[in-house]
Amino acid sequence: SIAKQFTFQLRNVIWLSIIIGIVFCLAGLWLSYNLHIPSGAVIIIVSVCSYIIVSGFNHGLKKALSKNSPQ
Q: What would the pLDDT profile of 24-63 be if each residue is shown by its tens digit?
C-alpha cells in the first residue's frame, strides 16, 4: 500500500514493495536486537508507523496542492 502511493505501474509497485519490505525487516530486526524485544512485533510497528507517516504526508501534500490550484 505504501508503494502504491508512489507509483501505479504494476512492475514498479512490485519492486518498490520488495525494497520497502526488506528495509522494514532489517530496521525491525536491528531495533529488536538493540531493544531486546520480539522482532515480529517491532517489524509490524515499524511498518505501521511508516504507513501512517507516508499516508499523512501524501494527504497533506494533496491538500496543499489543491488549495494552491486555481479554481
A: 999 999 999 999 999 999 999 999 999 999 998 888 877 7
> How many Å apart are CA 46 and CA 50, to the nearest integer?
6
Check: CB of residue 7 under 8 Å from CB of residue 13. yes
- Alpha carbon distance 60, 47 (integer Å): 20
Q: For the chain, how are helix, strand and coil distributed in percent, rounded to 5?
A: 85, 0, 15
CB neighbours of 29 closer than 8 A, spacing ≥ 6?
39, 42, 43
